[in-house]
Design a protein that fits this description.
Largest sheet of chain A: 2 strands, antiparallel
Number of helices of chain A: 15
Structural class of chain A: mainly alpha
Number of strands of chain A: 6
CATH superfamily of the largest domain in chain B: P-loop containing nucleotide triphosphate hydrolases
Largest sheet of chain B: 6 strands, mixed
Distance between the termini of chain A: 42 Å
Membrane topology (chain A): Multi-pass membrane protein
Helix content of chain B: 25-40%
Shape of chain B: globular
CATH class of the largest domain in chain B: Alpha Beta
Radius of gyration of chain B: 25 Å
InterPro entries (chain A): ABC_transp_permease
CATH topology of the largest domain in chain B: Rossmann fold
Structural class of chain B: alpha/beta
Number of domains of chain B: 3
Subcellular location (chain A): Cell membrane
Number of strands of chain B: 22
Pfam families (chain A): BPD_transp_2 (PF02653)
Radius of gyration of chain A: 22 Å
Strand order of the largest sheet of chain B: 6-9-10-3-11-12
CATH architecture of the largest domain in chain B: 3-Layer(aba) Sandwich
Helix content of chain A: over 70%
Distance between the termini of chain B: 44 Å
Number of domains of chain A: 1
Oligomer: heterodimer
Protein name (chain A): ABC transporter permease
Strand content of chain B: 25-35%
Shape of chain A: globular
Order of helices and strands of chain A: HEEHHHHHEHEEHHHHEHHHH
CATH architecture of chain A: Orthogonal Bundle
Number of helices of chain B: 17
C-alpha cells in the first residue's frame, strides 16, 4: 500500500475535524506573521501537540511489538525534574539535556528488562514505573515546583526557529528521524516480526530480547524529549502534573493512527497525525468557547466517532457501498449505450 | 451398548479430519483411543463433547440419538471430559470447583456449609479425604486430576473421556489416577482413554480403537494384541509390506564427519545421547509421539539448551546455548508447528523468506529491496511456491506453501546442518514428494540434514541412517541395509532388542 493510501483515513479525519472546528470558530485557519514568528491556532496546535506527538513516536514502536508503555507520562515528570534540577544547580544546558535524555533511556531500560528478560506483561511491567515515577520526580524536586530562569533551556519550550515553534520542530524531526531509521534500516521489519510472532522470529535468529529492550528505551527517550518540552515551556518542573495522563493520549494517538494493539505493522506518520487530531480537538474545544466542563465529553465523543468510522467493519461496508455504486454506474453506462 | 458412533465424519477446509468413523463404548469398560498426530483423536473427542458439530453420522447414547451443540449440553447428556491440563480454577477452593455452576442455595445465596458437605460426599468414593476449603492450586496435579474426574462424573455420569490425563504425572501418581479410573469402571461408566503411553494402555484398558488419517483402523481387545501389532496399526504399515531401501544398501558411505554431539541431554527432557553427523548425510529420527524426537532437535538448536556434554565440529567445540548461537554455528531448524513457530503470519512471503538472512546480517545492514525481491522470486520459482505474488501475507497461503517458505528462509541462509521436524506434515501429496526431492538435492550439495518424521516410509526413503527413540531415549541406530521399515518398527516396539 502506498503511504498516502495507508494514511488516507487519518488524513480524512484530520481534514474533516479542521473543517468542523473552522465552522464553529471561523478564525481557526488564520495564520499571521508577527515578529518573525508565525502565529495562529494551527501553529498553536503544532506546538501544543508536541508532547503527545513525541510520546506517540515511541509508543508506536512499543505497540508494534505487541506491548504498551503506561509509564511515559511519569517518565516525562522524572526527566523534567532531572533537567530542572541540573539547570537550577548551574550545571549548564548541555548537562541538563544529557541527564534528562539519560534518565529517559534508563527508565526505558528498566521497562524493557522487565518485559523482555523477566517476562512480565508489558501492561503490568510499565504500570510499576507509572506508579513509582512521580514519586521519584518528587524526590528530585523535593516536593516543590522547581523553577528556573535559563533562556537557553526555555528555548526548547517557547523558542522559535524559522518561524515555527521549537517544540513543533522537535516532534517533526524526531518523527522523521525514527521513521527513516525504521524504514531505511531493517529495524522496522524486525520490530514488526517480533510483534506478530516473537517465538517464530527468535527461532529465525532475530534477537527479540535486545530489540524489545530497545523499543522501550526509545519510548523512554521520546518521553524525555516530551518532558524537556513541557518543563522548558513553563520554566519549571512540576512533578505532580507534568505529563499527567499523557500516556493515555499517546496510546490514543497510536490507535487513531490505525496501528493495531495486537502488534505488527506500524506507521509512525499515522500516529503523528493521530496526535495532531487529538490536539486539534483540544484546541478546537477551547477556541469554540464551550464551558470547560464540556471539554472531556466532547473530546471523547469525537474520538469515538473517528474510531468507529475507522473500524474494519465500517470501512468494509464503505468499500462495498462504493464498489456497488461504481458497478451500478458501469451497468447504467453499458445499458445507456445500447439502442 | 452405552455409546454407539456410526459413520461419523468431519471435514475442515482442506482436510477430512474424520472419515466415517465407527466406535462402540460399553458400560464398564476402559476403551483406549490411539493414533499419531493428525489421526483424528482430538477431532473425534471434540465431536462427542459438543466442541465441534459433526458433518455426518450418528451418535447414540443409551439408545437415544444425540447431537450436542455445546460442551455444556454434552455434560448434561452424560458425557464428561478431563483434559491433560486440568481445566479447573486453581484459585478457588476444592469445594467451589466441584460445585461450580450448581452451588446449593439458600434464600438465593450460596449455602457454603451444604456446598462443603456435598463436595466431601462427592470425593468420598474416590478415597480422597482432603480439606475441601483449601485452594485447588495447593494440591498436586494428580489430586487435581482426580478432582476434575470427580466433577466430570458428578456432572455427567455416563461417559468419561480422559484426554491424556497422565501426561504430566509421575509413576506413583499415575497409579493413583488409574485406581480411581478402575473404580469408575466397576461402577459401570464407559471410559474413553486417550494416551500415547502404550504401557499405560496395556495396563489399564480393555479394548482399543486405533485411528489413522481420520479413519478407524481397528477395534480390538487389548488381551489379544501385542505391542508390535498395535504399533503397526498406528503407523499404518505391516511388516511384510516394507519397502526395502536398496539404493544405499551395499555402499557403506564413508562421509567426512561434520558434527559431533557427545552426551547432549537435559533432565526431564531427554537422556544424554551421542550422535555424529557426516557431511551430506541424512539422519532420520524415528519414534512414537512423545518419544523425544522434537526434544532432540530442541537440544541441538539451543531452544532448550543442553545441560551436559558438548557439541563440536572439526574446528572445535560449538556454542549451542540459544537459537542465535546455533544459527551462527551454521544450523537451521524448520519446526513442526509452522503456525506458531515457523511463519510470521501478518508479514509478506518475501519478508518471511528474508527474515532469517536479515536477522543474521543485523539491523544496520538491510537487504536492499531489489535483493529481497530477487531472493523471494528465486525461491518461489525453485520451490514452486504457489502464490499470487511475493508480497502476499504468508498467513493466506496454504500449509504446504507456508512450509516451503520456511524452508526457503533457511536455504537462503545456506546452513551446513538443517533440522527438519515433520517437514511434510499436513501438506498435500505433490508437495510432499517435492520436499523429499529437495532434501535429496540439498544433501548432494553437501548439506547435512536431521529428518524427524512419523512416517516410516518417508524416513526409509530419505535417510542414510535412522536413530530410533523411545521414552525420551535414543535406543537404536540403524545403518545401511538395516534402514528398513521392519527394523525401525521393531526398534520402536521392542525393549533393547534392536539396540
Amino acid at each position: 500500500m502506498s503511504l498516502i493510501g495507508r494514511l488516507a483515513p487519518q488524513l480524512i479525519a484530520l481534514v474533516a475535524l479542521v473543517a468542523l472546528v473552522t465552522a464553529v470558530f471561523p478564525g481557526f485557519l488564520d495564520i499571521s506573521l508577527s515578529d518573525g514568528r508565525l502565529v495562529g491556532p494551527v501553529i498553536d496546535v503544532l506546538k501544543r501537540g508536541a508532547p503527545v506527538a513525541l510520546l506517540a513516536v515511541g509508543m508506536t514502536l512499543v505497540i508494534a511489538t505487541r506491548g504498551i508503555d503506561l509509564s511515559v507520562g511519569a517518565t516525562m515528570a522524572i526527566c523534567g525534574a532531572v533537567a530542572a534540577h541540573a539547570i537550577a544547580s548551574g550545571w549548564g544546558l548541555a548537562a541538563a539535556l544529557a541527564l534528562a535524555l539519560g534518565a529517559g533511556g534508563l527508565a526505558g531500560l528498566w521497562n524493557g528488562v522487565l518485559v523482555a528478560v523477566v517476562g512480565i506483561q508489558p501492561f503490568v511491567a510499565t504500570l510499576i514505573l507509572m506508579t513509582m515515577g512521580r514519586g521519584i520526580a518528587q524526590l528530585i524536586t523535593e516536593g516543590r515546583i522547581l523553577t528556573f530562569t535559563d533562556p537557553g533551556f526555555a528555548f526548547f519550550g517557547s523558542g522559535n526557529l524559522l518561524g515555527l515553534p521549537v517544540p513543533a520542530w522537535l516532534w517533526l524531526a524526531t518523527g522523521a528521524t525514527v521513521a527513516l531509521l525504521m524504514r531505511r534500516s531493517a529495524l522496522g521489519l524486525l520490530v514488526e516480526a517480533i510483534g506478530v510472532n516473537r517465538r517464530a522470529s527468535a527461532l529465525a535468529g532475530v534477537n527479540a530480547t535486545v530489540l524489545l529492550i530497545a523499543v522501550y528505551v526509545a519510548a523512554g527517550v521520546c518521553a524525555a524529549l516530551a518532558g524537556i518540552v513541557v518543563t522548558a515551556d513553563i520554566r519549571g518542573a512540576d512533578a505532580n502534573n507534568a505529563g499527567l495522563w499523557l500516556e493515555l493520549d499517546a496510546i490514543l494517538a497510536v490507535v487513531i493512527g490505525g496501528n493495531s494493539l495486537l502488534g505488527g505493522r506500524f506507521s509512525i506518520a499515522a500516529s503523528l497525525i493521530g496526535a495532531l487530531i487529538i490536539q486539534t480537538i483540544d484546541t478546537g474545544i477551547l477556541l469554540a468557547g464551550y464551558p470547560s466542563e464540556y471539554n472531556l465529553v466532547i473530546k471523547a465523543g469525537l474520538v469515538l466517532v473517528i474510531l468507529v468510522l475507522q473500524s474494519p467493519r465500517i470501512s468494509a461496508r464503505y468499500r462495498l457501498w462504493r464498489d456497488s455504486r461504481r458497478l451500478g454506474r458501469e451497468v447504467r453506462a453499458a445499458g445507456g449505450g445500447r439502442p | 451398548m452405552l455409546l454407539t458412533i456410526r459413520s461419523l465424519s468431519k471435514t475442515f477446509p482442506g482436510t477430512r479430519a474424520l472419515d466415517a468413523v465407527d466406535l462402540d463404548l460399553r458400560a464398564g469398560e476402559v476403551h483406549a483411543l490411539l493414533g499419531e498426530n493428525g489421526a483424528g483423536k482430538s477431532t473425534l473427542i471434540k465431536c462427542l463433547t459438543g466442541a465441534y458439530r459433526r458433518d455426518a453420522g450418528t451418535v447414540t447414547l443409551d439408545g437415544a440419538r444425540i447431537d450436542p451443540a455445546s460442551t455444556r449440553e454434552a455434560q448434561i447428556l452424560g458425557i464428561g471430559t478431563v483434559y491433560q491440563e486440568v481445566n479447573l480454577l486453581a484459585n478457588l477452593t476444592v469445594a467451589q470447583n466441584l460445585m461450580f455452576g450448581r452451588e446449593p442455595r439458600r434464600w438465593g445465596l450460596i449455602d457454603s456449609r451444604a456446598m462443603r458437605a456435598e463436595a466431601r460426599a462427592l470425593l468420598a468414593p474416590y478415597g480422597l479425604q482432603i480439606d475441601v476449603d483449601r485452594d485447588l492450586g495447593s494440591y498436586s496435579v494428580a489430586i487435581r486430576q482426580i478432582i476434575a474426574i470427580a466433577r466430570a462424573v458428578a456432572l455427567s455420569g455416563k461417559v468419561l473421556i480422559l484426554d491424556e490425563p497422565t501426561a504430566s504425572l509421575d509413576a506413583a501418581e499415575v497409579r493413583m489416577v488409574f485406581d480411581v479410573v478402575r473404580g469408575l469402571r466397576a461402577r459401570g461408566l464407559g471410559i474413553v482413554f486417550v494416551s500415547h503411553f502404550l504401557d499405560q494402555v496395556f495396563d489399564l484398558c480393555d479394548r482399543v480403537t486405533v485411528l489413522r488419517n481420520g479413519r478407524k483402523v481397528v477395534t480390538a481387545h487389548i488381551a489379544g494384541l501385542d505391542r508390535m501389532q498395535l504399533i503397526e496399526h498406528m503407523l499404518g504399515r505391516a511388516l511384510e509390506a516394507g519397502i526395502h531401501h536398496d539404493a544405499r544398501a551395499d555402499t557403506s558411505p564413508q562421509r567426512p564427519g561434520l558434527l559431533r554431539f557427545d552426551g547432549i541431554g537435559r533432565r526431564g527432557v531427554l537422556e544424554p545421547f551421542d550422535l555424529a553427523i557426516g557431511q551430506g548425510e541424512v539422519v532420520g529420527l524415528a519414534g512414537l509421539l512423545g518419544s523425544g524426537r522434537t526434544e532432540t532437535a530442541e537440544l541441538m538448536f539451543g531452544i532448550r539448551p543442553s545441560q551436559s556434554g558438548r557439541a563440536s565440529d572439526a574446528a572445535g567445540p560449538l556454542d549451542l546455548s540459544s537459537p542465535r548461537a546455533a544459527i551462527a554455528a551454521g544450523f537451521g531448524f524448520a519446526p513442526e508447528d509452522r503456525k506458531t513457530e515457523g511463519i510470521v503470519g501478518e508479514l509478506s512471503l518475501r519478508e518471511n523468506i528474508v527474515l532469517g538472512l536479515q536477522a543474521r546480517r543485523g539491523w544496520a545492514r538491510p537487504l536492499p529491496r531489489a535483493e529481497q525481491n530477487r531472493l523471494a522470486d528465486d525461491y518461489i520459482a525453485r520451490l514452486d511456491i504457489r502464490t499470487s505474488g511475493r508480497d502476499k501475507p504468508i498467513g493466506e497461503l496454504s500449509g504446504g506453501n507456508q512450509q516451503k517458505a520456511v524452508l526457503a528462509r533457511w536455504l537462503a541462509m545456506n546452513p551446513r546442518f538443517l533440522i527438519l521436524d515433520e517437514p511434510t506434515r499436513g501438506i498435500d501429496v505433490g508437495a510432499h514428494a517435492e520436499i523429499l526431492r529437495l532434501i535429496d538435492k540439498l544433501t548432494r550439495s553437501g548439506m547435512s540434514v536431521l529428518l524427524i518424521s512419523s512416517e516410516i516410509d518417508e524416513l526409509v526413503a530419505a535417510s542414510d541412517r535412522v536413530i530410533v527413540l523411545r521414552d525420551r531415549r535414543h535406543v537404536a541406530a540403524l545403518e545401511g541395509p538395516r534402514v528398513t521399515g521392519d527394523e525401525i518398527m521393531r526398534a520402536i516396539a521392542l525393549d533393547g532388542a534392536a539396540a
